[in-house]
Amino acid sequence: MPVNIRIPTPLRKLTNNEEVVEVQAGTIASALVELQSRFPGVQERLLDEKGEVRRFVNVYVNEEDIRFLQQQETLLKDGDEVSIIPAIAGG
Amino acid sequence: MEKHEGFMKALKCRECGREYPLAATHVCEFDFGPLEVAYDYDRIKKSLTRAAIEKRPQTMWRYRELLPIAGEPTVGFQVGFTPLVKADRLAKRLGIRELWIKNDTVNYPTLSFKDRVVSVALSRARELGFKVVACASTGNLANSVAANAAAAGLKSFVFIPSDLEQGKVINSLVYGANVIGIKGHYDEVNRLCAEIAGKFGWAFVNVNMRPYYAEGSKSMGFEIVEQLGWRAPQHTVVPMASGSLLTKIHKSYQEFMKLGIIPESRYHVHGAQATGCSPISVAQKAGLDFFKPVKPNTIAKSLAIGTPADGFYALKVMKETGAVAEDVSDDELREGIKLLAEYEGIFAETAGGVTVGVAKKLIASGRIPADDSVVLCITGNGLKTLDAVVGHTGRAREIKPSLREFEALINAEGELSAAI
Predict the structure, then answer these.
(1) Distance, CA of A39 to CA of B120 (rounded, Å)
(2) Cβ pair A56:B15 closer than 8 A
(3) Which letter, b or e, does each residue of B109-130 get, where b requires 16 or more Cβ atoms within 10 Å of its Cβ?
(4) Measured between alpha carbons, how far is B171 from B177 in angstroms, rounded to an integer?
(5) Domain ranges of chain A
(6) What is the pLDDT of residue A88?
């Protein structure tokens, strides 16, 4: 199903400066696979060697952190909005 | 010829260790990890000794080798070396043997610990050739950037949530800073600033200058150690917003031990949050090493960061030092403000109330044993957050300028008679 993924600034070099990318995916994991196939290199930046989302990368489905949903197995439905946000400095 | 970078070696990713040049950059391009300044500790060891420190002026710059600028400071020469107050009356009230207040409510020039980080960030920004400085802030940082930029002749932009306390807004505007109020939480201000920083060539002290900026907080820990007579306290209680200060207090103790300035000793660095914005405290109490972001709802606006950037590292430090986190309600933090004021004559802002309130809980529950020594990091001045206590203090009695009226008042109010 069509889902929009918001791409953070540091990754836009890899997505030809596209800020929002539409993918067809039923879970976060499959959405990331599709992103990687269209924009090679993206997956390595987002996932560690064990295939888990890097600690300083936050992935949200409709503003809820996937760490508190089903991680990468979180189900996506039509029209969901996925945001990828690097952890940002506080202060 | 190699560029002179003082005692700094490189910027280094805290996650993967990849090194980067000492530029205005803060995120590892590979894994998004935060960058941190790496130092040449062998050279520092030759230059930084107790004797050398004690001869220097009483400012945060007496620990200059461990602060990340290449040359001499050009902003904020007089910052730091705030009083460490032996708080015997409050100690007795809370039931603890030895209690100290590190009193940054009187830090120069804007009455919060933020002057420490800003003097480093702006001195470094000048070295890197910036003419415009900026920040995303919950208030205190904005005040400090505005004032220190004005004194240094730099142009400043400060971005704050639009619902901040009036005192904190005026305290930025008065210096001629460009103040931008954002209709949203600090976390939204921060996300916007990350995008602005990428687009405009400014020195954003807590975005692209963060590796330098954050190190300034260590000076608070160095001073605590020196003012205690060259020892680390057994317990330090630190307010947590992003969690950065807690990690840097820990780092300051570690560096002094590593350099042989103080002997190795066991210490605990505890974290304090407001219950209305307590992602780090909730995670620590649940035994997790990650936190769930929250939408802040507390009067402790200076701590209202729902997605704390250093939350992971703060949790790690607490785990490593055998410390805990705790949180207090708005009523409890107001009580903390009053305790500090009534027992020690120090008027702290809401974050200070949080720190005192949490210390009270930790002592009462035995998590800080009654026979130990404790330092509370009090980071900002109560005059900036009057809104938080209006209506919660006593009230002034009004009378005519007449002795008879005064005597009538005294007789009418038992509490006043008792004071005679």
Answers:
(1) 39
(2) yes
(3) bbbbbbbbbbbbbbbbbbbeeb
(4) 10
(5) 2-86
(6) 62
Provide the residue ranges of all domains of chain B, joining segments of one domain with +: 84-110+214-388
Could B293 and A91 be called an inter-chain contact, meaning their C-beta atoms sit closer than 8 Å? no
Q: Would you tell me which CATH number, out of the four given (3.40.50.2300, 3.10.20.30, 3.30.70.100, 1.10.260.40), belongs to the domain A2-86? A: 3.10.20.30
Please report residues of B whose CB lies closer than 8 A to that of A91.
Answer: 114, 117, 135-137, 141, 205-206, 210, 213-214, 241-242, 244
Give the closest-approach CA distance of A64 to chain B in angstroms.
9
Taking CB atoms within 8 Å and a gap of at least 24, the contacts of B42-45 are B43/B7, B44/B7, B44/B259, B45/B259, B45/B260
Six token digits for residue A54: 């890097």
- What pLDDT, in 10s, does the model give residues B368-413? 999 999 999 999 999 999 999 999 998 899 999 999 999 999 988 8
Strands of B98-103's sheet, edge to edge? Answer: B84-86, B98-103, B373-378, B235-239, B268-274, B325-328
Higher pLDDT, B187 or B20: B20
- Asked if CATH classification 3.30.70.270 holds for the domain at B84-110+214-388, the reply, yes or no, is no
Q: How many CA atoms lie within 13 A of B9 on its CB side?
A: 12
Q: Which run of H or of E encompasses B239?
A: strand B235-239
Q: How many CB atoms lie within 10 A of CB B259?
A: 15
Q: What mean pLDDT comes out for the span A34-60?
A: 90
> Which residues have CB under 8 Å from A50's CB, separation 6+?
none
Average pLDDT over residues A16-32: 93
N- to C-terminal Cα distance for chain A?
A: 39
Tell me: pLDDT of A10 over 80.
no
Distances (CA, A) of B310 to A89, B3, B214, B247, B291: 8, 31, 11, 8, 11
- CB–CB of A90 and B190 under 8 A? yes
Please report, for residues B143, B168, B179, B200, B309, the alpha-carbon distance to residue B162 in angstroms, rounded to integers and kept in the order given.
Answer: 14, 11, 10, 22, 21
Are A91 and B191 inside 8 Å of each other by CB?
no
